[in-house]
Amino acid sequence: MAESIVSKRMDAIESSGIRRIFELAKSLSDPVNLGIGEPDFDVPEALKNSVIDAVKEKCGKYTASAGDKELIRKVEAKLAKENGIRQGKTMITAGVSGGLFLAFNAILDPGDEIIIPDPYFVIYKQIANFIGAKPVYVPIDLDFDELSRKVSSRTKAIIINSPNNPTGKVYGRDVMEKVADFANEHDLIVISDEIYERFIYDKEHFSIGSIYDKTITLNGLSKSHAIPGWRLGYANGPDEVIDAMTKLQQYTFVCAPTITQKACIHSFDIDISRHVNDYKKKRDMIYKGLKENFEVEKPDGAFYIYPKAPNGNGMKFVEEAIKNNVLIVPGNVFSESNTHFRISFAASDETIRKGIDILKRIARN
Ligand code: PLP
Questions:
Q1: Most ligand 1 atoms within 8 A of CB, residue of 16, 38, 123, 199 to mutate
Q2: What is the DSSP letter of 145?
Q3: Superfamily for the 8-43+272-364 domain
């Protein structure tokens, strides 16, 4: 039999489960779509204008691999002022996904282990597997005795995602201090994915990079500024790591899109609090609508809620929901177990209301 023309390395990763669900749902003509992982509001007007200005300037060139210098200075000022991060180096990445790919490759060798709280954002597992590193899962409500038991001589890093996709869970300063102590004790690098930083409803966002130097902080504008297609992220971390990530960027992404970088230089002053207030109301509406019929925690941040499927089988429940015209995502896309499902409330109030009614009806049957 002829050998596959595709590399063996590709066998280590799977296509995104979210895309698979969207395939399943293709037959629906006008679904109640609660599956989407991007904001439903439009790009802020000021940013639209900045991109037009950027186009009129000389914007067709490459930037330096680490990114546009002025933008880096703006990001550093933001990190110092809002996150208390004043050390290390900063680079611009092609979204947080680009930053994750570079960071994982820069610090993990085949056989190294990375601790991933479960449920997790899909990319972490797949990039670790792609590299030949081993994901080690721990429950998202971090139990530090259990975490210590999971550490081996190959453990290199732990990833923290607060606010979390898919649960909306936010770790307060108290938990972050424990993570920092744990990482320090076992000499681990912390990768902190803070992409939902702005979407936080009751608690305060806390950046672990402000208290633990061996942190790679990843963030970007995909969610906060509703520009996931523009590919703008940034990474801050120890000089050695950012230098390695920049070296790899030279041969992969080359640089984040120049137009986007130029347009985003003044984006950090744009106020999106109106949208965050809207999402807080949507969070309250969906939690109130579901809590009688589902076992569910109130999310503190992001724009997702993660109920347990009534029959304990997330995939079955999602199939049933799709038959009833509602698009949601099964928990096994984000987890080693298949007990929950994810709802995105980045949708109109009317869509959310319709979704709640249908999901409740399914749960009662
Ligand atoms: N990290 C988390 C937790 C996410 O949910 C997402 C997107 O859904 C990303 C990273 C990717 O973001 P970007 O569009 O900046 O690559």
A1: 123
A2: H
A3: Aspartate Aminotransferase, domain 1 (3.90.1150.10)
3-state secondary structure (DSSP) of residue 35: coil
> pTM for this one?
0.96
Residue in the block written with tokens 């007990």: 339
Ligand 1 site-directed mutation target among 100, 121, 124, 217, most atoms within 8 Å of CB: 121
Write the pLDDT tens digit of every residue in 180-218. 999 999 999 999 999 999 999 999 999 999 999 999 999
Q: Distance from the CA of 97 to the center of ligand 1, in angstroms?
A: 6
Sheet with 329-330, edge to edge strand ranges? 304-305, 341-344, 329-330
Question: 3-class secondary structure for 254-320?
Answer: CCCCHHHHHHHHHHHHCCCHHHHHHHHHHHHHHHHHHCCCCCCCCCCECCEECCECCCCCHHHHHHH
HEC profile of 71-103 = HHHHHHHHHHHHHCCCCCEEEEECHHHHHHHHH
Alpha carbons within 13 A on the beta-carbon side of 186: 25
Look-up of token digits 């569910």? 296
First to last CA, the chain: 50
Answer for the pair 321, 328: CB distance below 8 angstroms, yes or no.
yes
Fold of 59-269: Aspartate Aminotransferase; domain 2 (3.40.640)
Map residue 342 onto helix, strand or coil. Answer: strand
Residues in the ligand 1 pocket, defined by CB under 6 Å: 37, 95-97, 121, 161, 165, 193, 195, 220, 222, 228, 233
Above pLDDT 90, what percent of the chain? 90
Q: Determine the Cα–Cα distance for residues 146 and 290; give it in Å rounded to an integer.
A: 32
If one compares 271 and 28, the residue with the highest pLDDT of the two is: 271
Domain ranges of the chain: 8-43+272-364, 59-269
Q: What is the mean pLDDT of residues 154-165?
A: 98
Closest C-alpha to 275, from 333, 227, 213, 207: 227
